[in-house]
């Protein structure tokens, strides 16, 4: 019989919180373009930049590698993952279908509170679009997608889209950097929220798909031109 007691399975909440904070900071650094695709992630430099020890950095790198944001190579170590135009095209095709599903199901099943959250998320993104804070722009757009996915009330789709969105972090601001794209993006997600609020499932689904297809054209174009950056 094992001599281990219940307390032996306990973990440090402080440690878990620190690990999560390091992971979040590194995700933001990738999303903002501070760490660029193909860039080596050197432990010593990361420790100095983030202000934590090697153990926390290694744990964060393992998590980001599991999410596809980081790739480790022999004799080179971890680097920020790159994504080809063909891989991105495949990713956006699946994303359009899944987010279209979310729009349809949200319109059918969303509560008043869910819809109010969605409208607030759209308003926040529109306000950020009028400013020049890139981090706020990415954060508010990410929040909009989170609310959209939650409103569909399907845990499996939520899990799949979380994985896809982690990969999209590598491109999240690219399409919005295109001249004229940001106002279009605001208009498109406003149409999504209006269709959902009206309970029009088919229109909501189509609006979601159209939004992702428009973002995909711009993001794929940037990769084909050899330019890297974050997409909506």
Mean pLDDT, as a whole number? 86
Q: H/E series, N to C?
A: HHHEEHHHHHHH
Biggest beta-sheet profile? 2 strands, antiparallel
The structure class reads mainly alpha
Q: Helix tally?
A: 10
The radius of gyration over CA amounts to 19 Å
From the structure above, extract its key features:
Arc Repressor Mutant, subunit A; mainly alpha; globular; 232 residues; Four Helix Bundle (Hemerythrin (Met), subunit A); 2 domains; 10 helices
How do the strands and helices of this protein lay out in sequence?
Blueprint: H1 13-31, H2 43-50, H3 54-66, E1 70-73, E2 77-80, H4 85-109, H5 112-129, H6 134-152, H7 155-168, H8 174-177, H9 181-197, H10 201-224
Antiparallel strand pairs: 1-2
Helix pairs in contact: 1-3, 4-6, 4-7, 4-9, 4-10, 5-6, 5-9, 9-10
């Amino acid at each position: 019989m094992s001599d281990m007691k219940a307390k032996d399975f306990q973990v440090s909440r402080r440690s878990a919180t620190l690990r999560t904070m390091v992971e979040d900071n590194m995700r933001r650094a990738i999303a903002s373009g501070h760490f660029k695709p193909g860039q080596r992630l050197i432990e010593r430099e990361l420790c100095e930049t983030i202000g934590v020890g090697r153990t926390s950095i290694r744990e964060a790198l393992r998590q980001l590698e599991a999410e596809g944001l980081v790739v480790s190579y022999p004799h080179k170590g971890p680097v920020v993952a790159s994504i080809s135009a063909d891989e991105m095209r495949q990713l956006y095709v699946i994303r359009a279908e899944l987010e279209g599903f979310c729009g349809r199901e949200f319109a059918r099943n969303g509560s008043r509170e869910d819809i109010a959250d969605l409208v607030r998320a759209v308003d926040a993104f529109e306000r950020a679009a009028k400013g020049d804070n890139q981090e706020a722009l990415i954060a508010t757009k990410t929040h909009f997608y989170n609310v959209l996915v939650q409103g569909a009330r399907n845990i499996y789709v939520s899990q799949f889209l979380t994985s896809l969105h982690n990969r999209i972090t590598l491109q999240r601001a690219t399409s919005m950097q295109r001249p004229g794209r940001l106002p279009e993006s605001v208009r498109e997600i406003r149409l999504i929220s209006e269709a959902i609020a009206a309970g029009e499932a088919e229109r909501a689904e189509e609006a979601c798909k159209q939004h992702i297809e428009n973002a995909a054209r711009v993001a794929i174009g940037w990769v084909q031109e050899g330019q890297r950056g974050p997409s909506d």
